[in-house]
Specification:
The chain is α+β, with helices and mostly antiparallel strands and 289 residues long. It has 2 domains: 2-62, no CATH class; 118-276, Thrombin, subunit H, CATH 2.40.10.340. The protein is 36% helix and 29% strand. The protein has helices at residues 2-7, 9-29, 37-113; strands at residues 117-129, 135-141, 152-155, 158-167, 170-175, 182-187, 193-198, 207-211, 223-226, 238-242, 248-250, 253-260, 269-276. The strands form 2 sheets. A 6-stranded antiparallel barrel has the order 1-2-5-4-3-13. A 6-stranded antiparallel β-barrel has the order 6-7-8-12-10-9. A hairpin with a 2-residue loop joins strand 4 (158-167) and strand 5. The longest helix has 77 residues, at 37-113. The radius of gyration is 42 Å and the shape is elongated. The mean pLDDT is 79.
């Protein structure tokens, strides 16, 4: 027993040092007498302990209140984060729908201008992209069985390419800028006919127009449209614009760089020309750049 008291002596001293004065204060406080010297001495002795205990209790209370507040703030932040994510998702979806609506409106205007073209709309379901973020090939969802190889693919801006392969309900498209792609063209408003061939450049969308002779002087920005002579693309579809007047002669032909009319990176909805009516109506001329 003695060893027990020796081992816990500090605890006993602290306990008695705190409880005995408080007990005496309680006893004296119940008496109607005036404050005595003993009471004053006891208050002086116990006041530091009381102040320390009060500070500890206030600190514990502040810590607890702060913890509870932090828990509430954390939960509120989580709720706000979820709401922001949901609103962002809705905004992205609304932007996507607006873009699709704009593309459909533009294509509707195009079909009004070219009522002889029978087209089938298709969404792009796949893109092969180069390390330079250049789209190399696209895949379309065409599940109605009307799309076949070599059919032209267009959007409201002009020629996208042609159907290269059909497998099930998916069609692979060879883009205009593919090195295997060739389109017979003419310079709009001028008597110059040539062939636009892709370059398959890994870093930019560029094609080349080759032609035999200069019937008329060409200018940078001249519009190239399909001539219809290749029996694949109907005449009058926008192909691209002359990018530079720096010619490169190859044998008897001249070559110029061409910028495609279509931005292949922004494609989302395209149209496949499945037929051309035999009685085309008069249509307005393509817009010049």
């Amino acid at each position: 027993m003695r060893e027990f008291f020796q081992r816990h002596r500090p605890a006993f001293l602290a306990f008695f040092g705190l409880t005995v004065p408080l007990f005496l204060l309680y006893v004296h406080g119940r008496s109607p007498r005036k404050t005595t010297v003993v009471e004053v001495a006891l208050m002086k002795v116990t006041s530091p302990v009381q102040r320390a205990a009060s500070r500890v209790m206030r600190g514990l209370t502040d810590i607890w209140d702060g913890y509870v507040a932090l828990v509430d703030v954390h939960e509120e932040n989580e709720r706000l984060h979820d709401e922001i994510g949901l609103l962002k998702e809705h905004a992205d979806r609304a932007s996507q729908l607006e873009l699709e609506n704009q593309q459909l409106r533009e294509m509707l205007d195009f079909k009004r201008e070219r009522p002889e073209l029978v087209t089938v709309g298709a969404h792009i379901v796949g893109k092969d992209v180069s390390p330079y973020a250049r789209v190399l090939r696209i895949a379309l969802d065409v599940g109605d069985g009307t799309v076949r190889e070599d059919m032209p693919v267009i959007d409201s801006d002009g020629v996208v390419g042609r159907v290269h392969r059909v497998a099930g309900d998916v069609a692979e498209v060879m883009l205009l800028v593919d090195a295997r792609s060739t389109v017979n063209v003419k310079v709009f408003g001028k008597r110059v006919i040539g062939t636009v061939t892709g370059t398959s450049s890994p870093s930019s969308y560029v094609s080349r127009m080759s032609y035999l002779h200069k019937a008329e002087p060409l200018e940078k920005g001249d519009l190239l449209v399909t001539s219809g002579y290749d029996k694949v693309f109907p005449p009058g579809l926008k192909v691209g614009y002359i990018r530079s007047l720096e010619e490169r002669q190859r044998d008897v032909e001249y070559e110029l760089e061409v910028t495609p009319a279509v931005n292949f990176s922004d494609l989302d909805i395209v149209h496949v020309i499945v037929d051309v009516k035999s009685d085309p109506v008069a249509r307005p001329a393509p817009e010049t750049p």
